[in-house]
Design brief:
471 residues, mainly alpha
Length: 471
């Protein structure tokens, strides 16, 4: 373990102990207030003072750190001090907002100064680039000097330094041609790697987000429009792998999910705007599969490596990835003037297999199973609609609904019964809005009678349950 890792470990332990200490202090304050109230009601308020005095308060944010100061201010009303709103606003402005505003104003000033020098032709183009790099280096040096005592302030300065170096490199490439495309690319990659490493040492997600934006922006900033999407997506996959690792190690799920949104936006945008199914189909399939598996692994990382139950956002991520994979399959394998029957069938099998595997291997993940079941049900409904037409679709939807309702009654699964009722409602809506025009009179009569009987049976079931509960 090197010196920086040991310092980071000690900082984490100090923060954890300070948090536990502060929680204990807050509990002690609450107990003291309750005891004082009870003594007052009993007519012995003087017995509370002295032996049971409230704990001393911290003098400043430096003593306990930003997090402890915030927690302390949150209990100020209970100690008869100024309300949280006043302290909280001052704390937010002084310790959060001023830093951000200051670095933005400073970078703006540097940009205006360089622009003025350009307009007045005061310095040569090379000097302008060197001056901008020098400003970024100065910010970097100051941030590293202040890191030990002022971690958050140092992180803001570091972020400004990296932003300055990013755009200076971009300007040197695009406006002055001082750098070759390959040189600018490697400089920006090095800046991104350095930013991500420092985000780990700083333990600040803000720096990681800046590195993330820089990493995805590099291909657009230094692109020469070669059209090599295989190289572009290989680069994105490499960045995503590092992001998923960073998000898991530091528990920065926001970084991982932002990377997922950016990646699939880029991928689907390419499929919609510039995809050639004849020449790029294999590339599209490989990278869609790679992106899907990578972010599925990110969603299940906590389950596999930390043995924790999936959160609601993890479940939504899995369901969303299934939907994105289905949309990708439809775009990668276009079918002219026909429905995506094969794509729907394959995704139906995949999601249904996911649901079965979840039920079998992860019985504690009930919410995930339910969402996967509902998603596979939606795909089944789509498949029936693509495969058949007319009254056959209506009768098959009704059959699926009856099977689900019966299973829900036998298994006492209310969510299955609700899905069944919703499917019946959707079938009825389809019958009224679409099928009423296309069906023959006999088909309409049969459909309405069958749906009406099923609705009455369902209503009788719920009336029976309600009566049993009242008894």
């Amino acid at each position: 373990m090197n010196l920086d890792q040991r310092m980071d470990q000690l900082e984490q332990e100090i923060r954890q102990l300070a948090k536990e200490h502060n929680d204990t202090r807050q509990r002690l304050v609450r107990l003291y207030d309750e005891l004082r109230l009870l003594r007052t009601q009993a007519g012995n308020p003087s017995q509370t003072a002295g032996a049971f005095a409230p704990p001393d308060v911290p003098e400043s944010a430096d003593e306990w750190g930003d997090l402890q100061q915030e927690r302390y201010l949150a209990t100020a009303p209970a100690r008869g001090q100024q309300p949280l709103a006043q302290h909280g606003l001052e704390h937010f402005i002084g310790l959060r907002l001023i830093h951000l505003a200051g670095i933005i104003v400073l970078l703006t000033g540097i940009s205006l100064g360089i622009k003025y020098a350009i307009d007045k032709d005061l310095i040569s183009p090379l000097a302008r680039i060197m001056l901008a790099y020098f400003a970024g280096i100065i910010l970097l040096v100051i941030s590293l000097r202040l890191k030990a005592r002022y971690n958050f302030f140092s992180a803001i300065l570091f972020s400004g330094s990296m932003a300055c170096c990013y755009f200076t490199t971009y300007g040197a490439l695009v406006y002055y041609q001082f750098l070759a495309t390959s040189a600018a690319f490697f400089i920006m990659v090095a800046l991104t790697v350095f930013t991500v490493v420092q985000s780990i040492y700083y333990n600040r997600i803000e720096i990681a987000l800046i590195g993330l934006v820089g990493a995805y922006g590099i291909p657009f900033l230094v692109s020469n429009n070669t059209g090599r999407m295989d190289l572009f997506f290989a680069y994105v996959l490499l960045i995503n792998t590092a992001v998923v690792f960073l998000g898991f190690r530091k528990n920065w799920q926001l970084v991982t999910r932002l990377a997922m949104v950016i990646t699939w936006t880029l991928y689907l945008g390419w499929l919609l705007l510039d995809y050639n199914s004849a020449a790029q189909q294999l590339t599209a399939v490989l990278f869609a599969s790679a992106f899907y598996l990578l972010f599925i692994l990110a969603a299940f990382a906590g389950k596999f490596f930390r043995k924790i139950v999936l959160g609601s956002t993890d479940i939504v991520q899995v369901v969303l990835l299934n939907g994105l994979l289905y949309l990708s399959a439809v775009l990668v394998f276009p079918v002219n003037d026909s429905e995506p029957l094969v794509q729907t069938a394959i995704l139906l099998i995949l999601v249904a297999a996911w649901a079965v595997l979840t039920r079998w291997k992860m019985p504690d993940e009930r919410q995930l199973f339910r969402f996967l079941f509902i998603q596979s049900l939606c795909l089944l409904i789509l498949y029936i609609g693509f495969r058949w037409d007319g009254i056959t679709v209506t009768l098959l939807w009704i059959t699926v609904s009856v099977l689900m309702f019966s299973t829900g009654v036998i298994k006492r699964a209310g969510w299955l019964r609700v899905c069944s009722v919703l499917l019946i409602g959707g079938t009825l809506l389809k019958l009224i809005t679409l099928d009423a025009v296309r069906f023959t009179t006999g088909q309409r009569i049969v459909s309405f009678i069958v749906i009406g009987i099923l609705l009455l049976i369902g209503s009788f079931y719920y009336q029976r349950i309600n009566t049993a509960l009242k008894k």
